[in-house]
Structures are given as C-alpha cells and as structure tokens.
Design a protein that fits this description.
By secondary structure, this protein is mainly β. Strand 6 and strand 7 form a beta hairpin. It is flat, with a radius of gyration of 25 Å. Helix content is about 10%, strand content about 40%. The termini are far apart. The longest helix has 25 residues, at about 5-25. It has a four-stranded antiparallel beta sheet, with no helix packed on it. The protein has a four-stranded antiparallel beta sheet with strand order 12-9-8-15, with no helix packed on it. Strands 11-10-13-14 form a four-stranded antiparallel beta sheet, with no helix packed on it.
C-alpha cells in the first residue's frame, strides 16, 4: 500500500470521527422539570423536558432547601416515550401548611434524579422549626421562688428571601424580581453552571436591598457562561448570611 493511500485513509477516518463527535454533542440534552401549577395543600403539577424514556420513577416531597432527599414518597410513574410529559401529585399531609416545599424525582434504576421546589402558601405558610439541641436533665429540680418576666419580646418568624426569573436575553442579561429581602443589605450576584446553585460562581454584579422586602433588577450574563443552555444564579448577602438562588434557560424569554 502506498504512502499516499495510507494518508487518504487516515484523513477519512479522522473526518468520520469528527462527524460522529459533532452529532453526539448536537444531540446532548439534560432532563429537567418545572412547576406548572400548584393547588394549595392539595397538589402540584410538573412538566418534564428531555425525559429519559421507559424508566420507573418515584416522587418525593420534603422541607424546603432539602432537594427532596429522604422525603415523603407520594407517587411513582413510568416515563414512557420520554421527552415532555405532565403529571400531578398530591401534597402529603405532613407538608400541608408549609410556605415552600421541595420536590424530587428519582429513577428506580440508573441513578437519575432531578429536583425543584414550589410555593405552597406564599402568604401564610409556616416554616420548619429546627429541632432543639438535647439538654441533659438536672439530677434535682429545685422549686423556683419567682418567675421573672421575659426581658424581651420573642422575635417574629423568619421569612427567607427568594426571587423569580422574569426575563432573559440570551447570552446578555437576566431580569429577576424578589421578595422578603432584608433591609439595607449589600448583595453579590453570582452565576455558574447548572446544579451549582451559583456557589463560587462568576460575580455578575452587586446591589443594595434598600428598604427591603421586594426587589427587581437586571444583571449581565458573564461572557464565560455564554452558550450554556441553563445557568444558576445566586444572590448572596455580604453580611448576615442571607442568600437565595434559582436558575434559568439561557434563551430569549419574557413574561
């Protein structure tokens, strides 16, 4: 075989490999689901995208910010032909009255899982109460002589800041609207890859919460994240420990 013919064969194999890789990348898709409807203390409806076909899934619900891990199993379903499908699940009694609820779907085989959260009762819902640390009982309990009056009024229930995505201009900007923000607090805006919750992301701006409560702002999408289909965004207070995060599809959308 001549050197010329060998070179031609090598070039053809290289072109074929490149074409196959290109097809693989073009067809890559990441399953996810969004919340499409909530009936307070009754049910939540989800809409999936790019679902893996013909797998059995279980649905878990739990306290907010738990990602649904080790949550209450509320249903199972089969993804059938995959792609997009809508399904409605009952909210378990143990979570009725909660302000926000985490929801998670896990495949029974293959190790796939996806999670999200939704508002159940935005105005009057309750928040989980942290379990107290264990206090050893005293060996003897002397009777009190008097019961002093409390020195201060108990602090009101904490409301956590949150925000929603209201508009996106692909690779350029994202607009958000939020509620329950603490007053007069400096926040840093971070963006990163999907599933990172924006932790240690690229700084995309700062803002001051002013009088607190509601906020609305538009931030530039960092050049390093241009071209990503989905992006995590996080608003993190410089003091006080407050933070909120969300994610968005990096394409042209407007409410």
């Amino acid at each position: 075989m001549t050197k010329k013919r060998v070179l031609v064969i090598v070039l053809l194999l290289t072109m074929l490999f490149t074409a196959v890789v290109g097809i693989s990348k073009a067809q890559a898709a990441y399953p996810s689901f969004t919340i499409s409807e909530v009936k307070k203390d009754e049910s939540v409806t989800i809409l999936t995208q790019d679902m893996i076909k013909n797998l059995e899934w279980k649905v878990l619900m739990g306290e907010y910010n738990t990602r649904g891990e080790k949550g209450i199993e509320v249903a199972t379903f089969n993804s059938g032909a995959g792609g997009s499908l809508s399904a409605t699940f009952d909210i378990p009694d143990a979570l009725k009255g909660r302000a926000m609820i985490s929801i998670r779907i896990e495949s029974l085989t293959g190790g796939y899982y996806y999670y999200n959260w939704f508002w159940n009762d935005q105005d009057n819902g309750s928040w989980p109460t942290p379990a107290p640390t264990t206090t050893p009982a005293p060996t003897t309990t002397p009777a009190p002589t008097t019961t002093p009056a409390p020195t201060s009024t108990p602090a009101p229930a904490v409301k956590y800041p949150y925000f929603n995505i209201v508009a996106v201009e692909k690779d350029k900007t994202v607009s958000v609207e939020g509620k329950n923000f603490p007053a007069n607090t400096e926040f840093t805006v971070l963006m990163g890859k999907m599933w990172t919750m924006g932790i240690k992301g690229t700084e995309a701006g700062t803002f001051n919460s002013g009088e607190g409560g509601e906020m609305a702002a538009t931030f530039n999408i960092p050049a390093a994240l241009a071209g990503f289909s989905r992006i995590s965004i996080r608003l993190q207070a410089k003091t006080g420990g407050y933070y909120a995060y969300n994610w968005f599809w990096n394409n042209i959308t407007e409410n």
